[in-house]
Amino acid sequence: MIKPRISRGLICMLMGITLAGCSGNNEGMEHMHTAADSSMVPIKVELSWSPENAAVNEKVNFKAVVTQDGKPVDDAKEVLFEIADSSDGGKSVELKGKSDGDGAYVSESTFKQAGKYTVTSHVTARTQHSMPSKELVVQP
Question: Of 24, 36, 90, 96, which one is least surrounded by beta carbons within 10 A?
């Protein structure tokens, strides 16, 4: 049989070892929580183009400005501009957006015929996806 003083000593040592293991440096974990919290703030995408009043065979510059918590997002995984002809529901073209700095992604195209088009920017950034759409009218 183990003497009471020895058993108390062993119990104290085990408790000390257990507590020491639980009180390690949590710096890495805090960084993970900070990163997880920031990705929970939704990304915002402002879709625009110029000139606003596009014409047939005129170059149109598309722009998507991506922000998160008011700060530019320059590390988007993917930015695409999908342009769908409203008169031909199944016909669409995708343009790849290139970073222009300060959270802006750009691409350009021309239109061969007048009509109404739906422009959708597909943005994948920081574990999120956003796809705002706007209508573009191309004049003859």
Answer: 90
22, containing H or E segment:
helix 4-22
Q: 92: buried, middle or exposed (CB in 10 Å: 19+, 13-18, 0-12)?
A: middle
Question: Which residue type sits at 30?
Answer: E
Tokens of 77: 């995984």
Q: Are 63 and 49 in contact (CB under 8 A)?
A: yes
Element of type H or E holding 15: helix 4-22
Residue 35's H or E segment, with its range, is helix 27-40
CA distance 43 to 68: 5
Give the predicted TM-score (pTM) of the model: 0.71
- Distance in angstroms (rounded) separating the CA atoms of residues 134 and 118: 6
